[in-house]
Amino acid sequence: MRKLKITELNRLTPEGFKQSEKIPLIVVLDHVRSLNNVGSVFRTSDAFRVEAVYLCGITASPPHPEIHKTALGAEDTVDWLYFSDTLEAVDKLKKEGYTICAVEQAKGSIMLDKLLLDKEKKYAIIFGNEVKGVQQTVVDNCDLCIEIPQYGTKHSLNISVSAGIVIWDLFKQLSD
Predict the structure, then answer these.
(1) Which of 45, 57, 114, 122 is 20 to 30 Å from 171 by CA-CA measure?
(2) Is residue 2 part of a domain?
(3) Which residues lie closer than 8 Å to 50 by C-beta, 6 or more apart?
(4) Is the peptide bond before 63 cis (omega within 30 degrees of 0)?
(5) What tens digit of pLDDT does each residue of 77-131 get?
């Protein structure tokens, strides 16, 4: 086996990405404090053609060198909006017909491996603060909670890891 060179990967150009069809998914970051996590979410969102990333509350927005360090330019290709209040973002998404999903451990949450999406619908997934998670007031305004099954002694994952897992799973279900 031979590793491929970057020139052999046939990646989209930034212009090509902007014009490409996206999956019907918006990622919402609710008070995410780590700029590295924000950058990683942008990069994952680029990899799986997510429509947009909504940055809320204390979540930093581009341009920022610490976001760029992990996003590697994806902050320039993936559309994004900033909201001072996450509930404003949720209200906008609801008005636009999105099913709102918090990625959170909650009573009645649906385990990711049991989640079945409808390809005819649009979805928004909310990831919360590294310590406090998704705000309860935001969870109260969601249509459902998605939980990543975990089988060890820890009951949490880093946001960038959670985003990678969830976005990949939703991409598989929503892409053609």
Answers:
(1) 57
(2) no
(3) 22, 23, 25, 26, 27, 44, 78, 167
(4) yes
(5) 999 999 999 999 999 999 999 999 999 999 999 999 999 999 999 999 999 999 9
Task: Kindly report the CATH number assigned to the domain that includes residue 42.
Answer: 3.40.1280.10
Task: Classify residue 170: in a domain, yes or no.
Answer: yes
Is residue 54 within 8 Å of 96, Cβ to Cβ?
no
CB half-sphere exposure, 55, CA atoms < 13 A: 21
In a domain, 44, yes or no: yes
Which residue range forms the structural domain that includes residue 65? 21-174
Residue 89 in domain: yes
Q: How many domains does the chain have?
A: 1
Give tens-digit pLDDT for 7-52. 999 999 999 999 999 999 999 999 999 999 999 999 999 999 999 9
